[in-house]
Design brief:
The structure is a homodimer. In chain A, a hairpin with a 5-residue loop joins β7 and β8. In chain A, α1 (about 15-30) crosses α3, α5 (about 150-165) runs parallel beside α7 and α8 packs across α9. In chain A, about 35% of the residues lie in helices and about 25% in strands. Chain A has 11 helices and 20 strands. With about 400 residues, chain A is an alpha/beta fold. The longest helix of chain A is centred in the first third of the chain and has 25 residues, at about 65-85. The first copy, chain A, has a domain at about 5-175: Acetylglutamate kinase-like (Carbamate kinase, 3-Layer(aba) Sandwich), CATH 3.40.1160.10. In chain A, the strands form 5 sheets. Chain A has an 8-stranded mixed β-sheet with strand order 3-6-2-1-9-11-12-10, sandwiched between helices. In chain A, strands 13-18-20-19 form a 4-stranded antiparallel β-sheet, with helices on both faces. Chain A has a 4-stranded antiparallel β-sheet with strand order 15-16-14-17, with helices on one face. Chain A starts with a strand and ends in a 7-residue tail after the last helix. The interface between A and B is large, with 38 and 38 residues.
């Protein structure tokens, strides 16, 4: 008998039929003798509908009231799922975030979970109840409703798994697991049976939006084994766990991130500390800088290029423009027509030829590399956005073989 | 500077425009220097929509989960109203039932308020916030969501007024106050400036659905002055207060109740205690019996007639049928085509001719009286349902004069 946490996203409970489908998965797990805690998101478009209602009234509504509004969404889906489970004849109780012991920071709309105090959940499990918990929400120390931000339900599920020492945390989604590349775009992709936390983190941050990043970080920190699987098929998904516990593949996947823009400061005087000051300025505004490239310019000056997310582009340029004159640089350039393509794999560190194979694939397809960034388990290149899908495909073919129909 | 509780029903906040209309009333009250606590129901059809969603999944869902589901409705309306008040530039905070200190019994779907622990509301008022509280809901001693049943938001408002020692509790509705009869059906009705708690209670229980009965009982118990008024017009409404504090009118209103059925047990043997046993049987099943008439039947037997609400009719017949044989009575008859028409007024007790005037009005219109019931402040008659509207009109004319256009 195991304790299993199962999380279902908004599309999995979008209508009565799907709610029953979820209830079926949950009760089958319970009927096998497991204790089951279910974490559920708001139904389908509920959150968007509520946001639309709010915008109609006040586009600058306080985040506190937005959280009060939005947390009603999971309340509805949790109650409906509990009713479906009742209908199937199983004992069940639904709990709101605050009832389930979710204590968060006060940062409305993007609160962090401070602690899950699981006594109520434990009590209900002891009574042999299936426990349905609202994802995405908690209360701060003032007893006010908070939400964890988009994708927060994954984090809710992992946090319960941590607090309850669950044996497994299953994240049900609309894909069958983690793939070597986006299966909607690339042929011949493979579902991974297993992937390490670090690889998953790199893939998530690189735009393969399967799992919320904070949930993976939390799972990693406490060693909670995750399974990403589809609520539609009944096949095993992808297990996310510690690298030391798995046979490493060379690379696990190829990911594309189009939410990226390149900024270049041209003709920066060659004085120590200038680069540091530039990046401190951005850091102070919570602008994350990713790939950085420093190159020699004319007359002993340097050109400094880096990437930021496209959302931050405008603010970055606005911050840098006055500064450029001050330090005696020439100008600031930017390019939004770029994309980042990356390979991720625990085997990269121990296989020095991996980068060369990746670059070879791009070279063979005449795709120009603008910038490169590497870590122990990741190699990223910045290229023209127009080339991005093709780049993913040729890199994927290089590492995972040609599509069957072309082989 | 006063503390004013204002309650707005679901139709008052049905859409963005109306929400702003309510926000305008609230902020104008606040701007005059008052402390304001607003109690709000779920928007328009939200509750019905949620019930429909539940029914689609499980028509026999537990009451606990129904309360979990339904309490999301006021959460949404309270947040939206707070956003509208923010938009108008006023400080505001919304609170859920449990945050506002509403502790209730555990009777899901019809919980009773045990206590309002108002420290959070007080704290927010001290900070000069307008406080928006969700009506209709609270938590039981297990920390589970409960609802007070339909119309419960009125009770929520009065309970806050009691707990906070408010100076006035305004119940905003879609009529301008309490009328001498239903203004949609009877010509020449008058809005009452003032009415006593007891009269209001009789009127509410008799089918003049202006105020929830429990809210009036609570207001009476703690002497909270209520004002019933329209959120659309800006005119003064009807004040509900203690009879001793007002000049009594002879009668305050004429009401009609069609949710009534007549049951007759024919040929009950004339043995002591049989009537008692019959009514105990019904009482044990929570069936309320209203007008009772005992008449002499044939051969020394009695006929016992009484009224129950139409909802209880079937169950009543089912309970009585086996019993009738047992006690040697002849049979059970019933009639659903009846209605109860009543006059209510603090002056009835001191004016013995009032009943005669009422019966005269019915006699003049050839309306047959089946049963009569009287109390200090009420006279009710049971008549054919087909005559009910006409009966209300002729009684109203008798006491309040002919419609102007016919005079």
């Amino acid at each position: 008998m195991s304790l299993i946490v199962q999380k279902f996203g908004g599309s999995s409970v979008a209508n009565a039929e799907r709610v029953f489908h979820v209830a079926d998965i949950v009760t089958k797990t319970y009927a096998k003798g497991n204790s089951v805690v279910v974490v559920v998101s708001a139904q389908g478009d509920t959150t968007d509908d509520l946001i639309a209602k709010a915008k109609e009234i006040n586009a600058e509504a306080s985040r506190r009231e937005m959280d009060m509004l939005l947390s009603a969404g999971e309340q509805i889906s949790a109650a409906l799922l509990a009713m479906a489970i009742e209908k199937l004849g199983f004992p069940v109780v639904s709990l709101l975030g605050w009832q389930a012991g979710f204590q968060t920071s006060s940062a409305y709309s993007k609160a962090r979970i401070r602690r899950v105090e699981p006594s109520r959940i434990r009590k209900e499990l002891d009574k042999k109840n299936i426990v349905v918990v609202t994802g995405f929400q908690g209360v701060n120390r003032y007893g006010d409703m908070t939400t964890l931000g988009r994708g927060g339900s994954d984090t809710s599920a992992v946090a319960i798994a941590v607090a309850m020492h669950a044996d497994l945390c299953q994240i049900y989604t609309d894909v069958e697991g983690v793939y070597t590349a986006d299966p909607r775009k690339v042929k011949n992709t493979r579902k991974l049976d297993v992937i390490s936390y670090d690889e998953m983190l790199e893939l998530a941050s690189l735009g393969a939006q399967v799992l919320n990043n904070r949930s993976v970080e939390l799972a990693k920190k406490y060693g909670v084994e995750l399974e990403v699987l589809s609520s539609m098929s009944r096949r095993p998904g992808t297990i996310v766990k510690e690298a030391s516990k798995m046979e490493g593949m060379l690379i696990s996947g190829v990911a594309k991130d189009e939410d990226v823009a390149r900024v270049s400061i041209i003709g920066v005087p060659d004085r120590p500390g200038l680069a540091f000051k530039i990046f401190s300025k951005l850091s102070a505004k919570n602008i994350n800088v990713d790939i950085i490239l420093q190159s020699v310019g004319r007359n002993g000056t340097k050109d400094i290029s880096f990437t930021v997310s496209r959302d931050n582009m405008k603010e970055t340029i606005g911050l840098l423009n006055p500064y450029v004159e001050l330090i005696g640089a020439t100008k600031v350039l930017y390019d939004e027509n770029v994309a980042k393509v990356s390979i991720v794999g625990a085997g990269i560190e121990s296989h020095p030829g991996t980068a060369a194979r990746m670059f070879e694939a791009l070279y063979e397809s005449n795709i120009n590399i603008q910038m490169i960034s590497t870590s122990e388990i990741k190699i990223s290149v910045l290229i023209n956005r127009a080339d991005a899908d093709r780049a993913v495909e040729v890199i994927h073919n290089k590492f995972f073989g040609q599509p069957a129909e072309e082989a």
